[in-house]
Specification:
The complex is a heterotrimer of chains A (210), B (155) and C (748).
Chain A (H helix, E strand, L loop, with lengths): L2 H10 L36 H16 L2 H4 L9 E2 L4 E2 L12 E2 L2 E2 H4 L30 H9 L9 H10 L1 H4 L15 H13 L10
Antiparallel strand pairs in A: 1-2, 3-4
Helix pairs in contact in A: 1-2, 2-8, 6-8
Chain B lengths: L1 E4 L2 E4 L8 H8 L18 E4 L2 E4 L12 E3 L1 H4 L6 H8 L9 H14 L5 H8 L9 H12 L9
Parallel strand pairs in B: 1-5
Antiparallel strand pairs in B: 1-2, 3-4, 3-5
Chain C lengths: L8 H10 L23 E5 L2 E4 L4 E5 L8 H13 L6 E5 L21 H23 L6 E4 L2 E4 L4 E4 H9 L17 H4 L8 H6 L14 E6 L7 E6 L1 H4 L4 E6 L15 E5 L2 H9 L2 E5 L8 H13 L3 E6 L2 H6 L3 E9 L11 E7 L2 E6 L4 H12 L6 E5 L13 H13 L5 E4 L2 H6 L7 E9 L5 E10 L3 H4 L24 E7 L15 H18 L4 H9 L4 E2 L1 H4 L16 E2 H14 L9 E9 L2 E12 L3 E12 L6 H21 L4 E2 L2 E2 L19 E5 L15 H15 L8 H5 L2
Parallel strand pairs in C: 3-4, 8-18, 16-17, 20-21, 26-29
Antiparallel strand pairs in C: 1-2, 2-3, 5-6, 6-7, 8-11, 9-12, 10-11, 13-21, 14-19, 15-16, 15-18, 19-20, 22-23, 24-25, 25-26, 27-28
Helix pairs in contact in C: 2-3, 3-4, 11-12, 15-16, 15-20, 16-18, 19-20
Classes of the chains: A mainly alpha (210), B alpha+beta (155), C alpha+beta (748).
């Protein structure tokens, strides 16, 4: 099988509608543990620019589909919580502005930073991603196209997406979730670098069907 | 830190990270707001911050700086708030411990949605726990104040 | 003291008794003088009653208010009997003192056990007022009555205010027999279906005084790090970082309890600080290494298997009628099933808390306690003081459900207050985690039921084996099997028509602390029996309602011989006064199924169950509909209860609603589990309870009008609910749930 096909398959592996990060490869890409993100340099081995772009997104998707991130990108009206992505308890709903309903707004309980002794996670402007940014139940290809689409990404350009990924305070929470919560893999800075490299290689998306 | 509490300016000289609940209870002696769980799971500590319901047990005092806090003691001077009156008419409380939080959450709901639907009531009240089981009467009391028909309910 | 405006005088005065507004020192009054006709300035015919010279009537509530409404009921009952104007009555909460008789607010007993004595007390006061007035008018006492704080001479309609006769009345002898009771129909207050809540305004304005609301100037707060495993202790600890937390004043080693546990404090390390937050932070900064002790090998999962093995084996027989073995040998069909219920946590909304201060020779405590006399004895023993130097003040309770009838949390406060000394007031605050992890849980249980059916489907033999960790083991660590008396809760007081019956208690050694939780062993016995009868019905393709009535048998009062037992503790009542009455059990089943339109069941998923507990009879129907996310939703519920004569119907309806909801909570979410001896759950996130979305919009409640003596009210609504819910879910989904919590099996 040609190397490019192998890499293509590897890059989109694990996105058959399931919320699993792309399988850690056993071949071309450097093996890493579940909490480590590959660096941009690790993808230099992928010669074809398009394939490298898709592979970079596949690595970003390990963050996007981690429960710390995807729990607040539900495809329904309730956020999820915990690693098993259970429905949020106490029961809360999206509300008209993605920030809850009177009496049970997100900020009724969530503060601007994690509360350690009381365990409540927090970050500035805690709220749900709007429904058009739902990731639960989507393939990584679908998530990728949503992120690129200004009609569905809050009107962002690719540069703004890179900035958002690398510096937004709410996004940052994914790596600093507090209490005993497992953080997303790697660091926000690495995620930002991968995002920049993905854009720089053409911001290509894996096939939506995989 | 300067905070307006029930309409009165107060100066609090405490750790800014101290939850508002303990500042209200231990420092200011306003014990109407209750400690039920300490982790925003039960709603017994609900107060209003600039009119929005917040759970005082997890809200650091610094978040209230320069803003207005209303506790159950400040909802009315004398129990005359329509929700308080409805609570009494329908004899909602059993042990009474959760009811300040229930009323404050209901007040936040009615301030935005004066005529809530059944689903809206349940969604807004979903986070307030009552172990004595007064939920059906809570719904009825809210509907009474809202002036919406109560085809279910108790009392 | 800031008072709410527009407060009625009665409520104001009651408020003084109930709890003080913020900022005021709680009063530590001397106890009311005993029934002494020479009581200075007034009439004191009974320890619960005092009528002052100006007519103001103080009625003492000697039982703890935890939502069951005793403060709204008991004073009204006594006041009705006296003939008071409710606006002239002050209610005072009693401190813990033997002179008040039994103050243990537990076992649904406050009205049931003392109804006669309350009425007699009120009657005695009335008789003395009437006698004084009759003497002055020179008429016969029989021609007089009382009403609205007046003595009335019926023929002439003359009246005398209580204030005008109280001094004369106080010189008369106090009646101690031949009490003249009012006709029941004249007790207007307790019959009022809209009787107000005594403390209602205080609850809704936040002025009601619960345990943690008791404040003193310069009071300190303590939070205790307790051993995670029962029987564990501190191996070593370092308090350096804790003492460095601003506000922390002292770190104290708690005494180590020795088995049997009784209600001893748990041990551990206390952090004392000038604020709750500092104490919590200080405790988090403690560095403790635990010696977990002998129960560290206890695991709920493994123990569950042990309990099931126990009920599959032989137990001790406590109920025996006929010969079940012969009947099973010739059975046309056999139905059998096993049921498991884990430890359950009471989880009242108010976590445990107690305030204490100790000087040389005297101790005072304020606590939301169900058992102030037991507290007094334990504190006196701890401090080596005579009991009359120990005052236990009872605040309002933010729920009890049995957890607050144990003295552990009160003794902890007394201990720390003693260590601090000099009358330093200290509040020991339990966090919710403390409450969940250091519980006196309801017994964990497994049961095995077997029924033999003949070719017509009649039950010819009934075999019930039950294994549960008996509460007695908390008092006697050698006890590892439920006793005969324990089976009175739903096993040996169950009316059965079957000619062959056997019930056995099987072994269940304790590795945890076990205590009472609203309806106690009835929770799991009713779940098993109620589910099993439904399973029999479905095995027969018969109507569960008909099968219930068949299994119970005809209306009759069952003798010990018919029950197949040598004795029946019967919740402390005689069988004469409170028989095992199959007719009353049938009646609530008939009523509740009629309310639910049971015969119109097509297209609906209904579940039925009934139970006798605390000598009352209750029956429940639950209706469920499908839910796309959570499998099912309870859309309607009905409950009928026969509790004999009831006092304050309005509060009884609220107990029916609340008990039904608690039953739903137990069934869906209940369960405390342990890993390596330590409780797994920590707060409402994993020790889940029913929320508003779990309950139907209306709970239809029915109180059977009865002239039978009062039965228990607070607990009887709970037991039938679990089976009713399980039976409804079966009707909806075909899935039989034999284990709580249902949320685990249904993954919701």
């Amino acid at each position: 099988m040609p190397m490019r096909w192998v890499l293509f398959v590897l890059a989109v592996a694990g996105c058959g509608g399931k919320q699993q990060p792309p399988t850690v490869d056993r071949g071309a890409l450097r093996a890493v543990g579940p909490s480590e993100l590959r660096t941009v340099a690790d993808f230099d081995v992928v010669g074809d620019r398009g394939a490298r772009s898709r592979a970079l997104f596949g690595e970003m998707a390990r963050v996007l589909t981690h429960p710390r991130c995807i729990n607040c990108h539900p495809n329904g009206d309730s956020p999820h919580q915990r690693m098993a992505m259970e429905l949020h308890d106490p029961p809360v709903v999206r509300g008209p502005a993605d920030n809850g309903v009177p009496g049970m707004e997100c900020t009724t309980c969530h503060q601007d930073r994690n509360q350690e002794l009381t365990r409540v996670p927090g970050a500035p402007k805690w709220h749900l991603a709007p429904l058009e940014m739902a990731w639960v139940g989507r393939s990584i290809g679908q998530i990728c196209n949503q992120i690129k689409d200004p009609n569905r990404n809050g009107g962002k350009t690719l540069e703004q997406i890179v900035e958002h990924n690398g510096h937004d305070e709410l996004v940052a929470w994914g790596w600093n979730p507090g209490a005993d919560r497992e953080p997303a893999p790697g660091t926000q800075s690495q995620f930002g670098a991968l995002s920049a490299a993905w854009v720089e290689t053409g911001a290509e998306c894996p096939e939506e069907s995989r | 830190m300067k905070i307006k509490i029930n309409g009165v300016d107060k100066t609090l000289d405490v750790d800014p990270e101290m939850p508002l609940l303990w500042a209200l209870r231990d420092v200011l002696g306003l014990t109407g707001t209750k400690y039920g769980c300490g982790e925003a799971l039960c709603g017994a500590c609900t107060v209003h911050l600039d009119g929005h319901a917040v759970r005082a047990c997890v809200t650091p005092v610094r978040r209230a700086e320069g803003r207005a806090v209303t506790t159950i003691e400040g909802l009315s001077a004398d129990g005359s708030h329509p929700l308080q009156q409805a609570w009494l008419e329908l004899r909602v409380p059993q042990c009474g411990f959760c009811q300040a939080g229930q009323i404050m959450t209901a007040a936040a709901l009615l301030a935005v949605k004066p005529k809530p639907s059944d689903a809206e009531i349940d969604q807004s009240m979903a986070g307030n726990i009552c172990r004595c089981g007064t939920y059906t009467r809570i719904r009825s009391a809210i509907k009474k104040v809202a002036g919406v028909p109560d085809d279910g309910g108790n009392q | 003291m800031t008072l709410p405006l527009k407060l009625s005088r009665r409520a104001f005065l009651a408020g003084l008794g109930a709890g003080l507004a913020v900022g005021v020192m709680p009063r530590v009054g001397r106890a009311q003088s005993p029934s002494d006709k020479k009581a200075a300035g007034g009439l004191a015919p009974h320890v619960l009653i005092h009528i002052a010279l100006d007519g103001t009537t103080t009625i003492v509530c000697h039982r703890s208010e935890m939502g069951q409404g005793i403060r709204s009921s008991l004073p009204i009952l006594i006041g009705d009997e006296i003939g008071v104007d409710p606006k002239r009555v002050v209610v005072r909460q009693a401190e813990g003192d033997k002179k008040y008789g039994d103050q243990n607010t537990d076992g649904s007993s406050s009205i049931r056990e003392q109804y006669d004595s309350y009425r007699n007390a009120g009657a005695a006061a009335r008789m003395m007022l009437v006698a004084a007035a009759a003497k002055r008018w020179k008429v016969k006492p029989e021609s007089c009555t009382t009403e609205n704080h007046f003595v009335l001479h019926r023929p002439t309609k003359r009246t005398l205010a209580f204030a005008d006769v109280v001094e004369a009345a106080s010189k008369l002898p106090v009646p101690n027999k031949d009490f003249v009771l009012r006709p029941f129909s004249e007790l207007k207050g307790i019959a009022d279906p809209k009787l107000p809540l005594l403390d209602g305004l205080a609850y809704v304005t936040g002025t009601a005084q619960f345990g943690a609301d008791v404040r003193f100037p310069d009071m300190l707060t303590a939070v205790i790090a307790r051993p995670p495993v029962v029987g564990g202790k501190v191996a070593r600890y370092d308090a350096k970082r804790a003492l460095a937390v601003p506000g922390v004043r002292k770190v104290i080693e708690m005494p180590v309890p020795k088995p049997p546990w009784l209600f001893q404090p748990w041990g551990g390390i206390a952090v004392v600080a000038d604020s709750t937050w500092a104490a919590i932070k200080g405790r988090a900064a403690l560095d403790i290494t635990w010696d977990h002790g002998p129960n560290a090998s206890y695991n709920s999962d493994a123990y569950r298997e042990e309990l099931l093995a126990s009920v599959r084996g032989k137990g001790t027989t406590h109920r025996d009628v006929g010969n079940i073995d012969t009947a099973f040998a010739v059975a046309a069909k056999t139905v059998e099933a096993e049921y498991v219920v884990p430890h359950l946590s009471q989880m009242p909304m108010e976590p445990l808390v107690a305030v204490a201060r100790v000087t040389k020779g005297q101790a005072e405590v304020w606590a939301p306690t169900q058992n102030p006399q037991a507290n007094r004895t334990s504190v006196a023993a701890l401090l080596e003081l005579p009991e009359d130097k120990v005052t236990i003040n009872v605040t309002l309770l933010g729920g009890g459900f049995g957890r607050k009838s144990k003295s552990d949390f009160v003794v902890e406060a007394a201990f720390i207050a003693k260590e601090l000394g000099d009358g330093q007031a200290v509040r020991v605050q339990w966090t919710r985690e403390d409450d969940v992890k250091h519980g006196y849980y309801n017994a964990v249980s497994a049961q095995r039921l077997r029924a033999a059916l003949d070719d017509k489907g009649a039950v010819t033999a009934w075999h019930h084996k039950t294994a549960f960790t008996p509460i007695g083991g908390t008092f006697n660590d050698k006890l590892d099997t439920p006793a005969a008396d324990d089976l009175m809760q739903g096993v040996t007081d169950l009316a059965l028509a079957a000619p062959n019956v056997r019930a056995e208690a099987c072994k269940a050694p304790l590795h945890t602390r076990v205590g009472w939780y609203r309806s106690v062993y009835n929770i799991f016995h009713a779940f098993a029996v109620g589910s099993f009868i439904d399973e029999i019905a479905h095995a027969r393709s018969a109507d569960p309602r008909e099968v219930w009535l068949d299994v119970i048998g005809p209306a009759r009062k069952m003798s010990l011989a018919e029950l197949g037992i040598p004795k029946q503790p019967n919740y402390g009542e005689t069988l004469d006064k409170h028989p095992v009455d199959a007719g009353r059990l049938r009646n609530v089943i008939e009523r509740v199924t009629k309310m639910a339109s049971w015969s119109n069941r097509k297209g609906r998923a209904l579940g039925l169950a009934a139970h006798r507990s605390f000598v009352a009879y209750s029956a429940v129907v639950v209706s469920v509909v499908p839910d796309p996310v959570r499998v099912f939703r309870i859309d309607d519920a009905w409950i009928s209860m026969d509790a004999g004569i009831v006092v304050n119907q309005e509060r009884v309806h609220s107990q029916l609603e609340g008990g039904l909801i608690m039953g739903i909570s137990n069934a869906l979410y209940g369960g405390a589990t342990m890993t390596n001896g330590a409780t797994d759950q920590s707060n409402f996130r994993d020790a889940r309870v029913a929320r508003i979305r779990d309950v139907p919009h209306r709970i239809h409640t029915d109180i059977v009008a009865s002239t039978e003596p009062p039965s228990g009210v607070g607990e009887p609504p709970v037991p039938p609910v679990g089976a009713a819910v399980a039976n409804a879910i079966f009707a909806l989904t075909g899935k039989r749930l034999r284990e709580m919590p249902f949320a685990k099996a249904l993954k919701i």
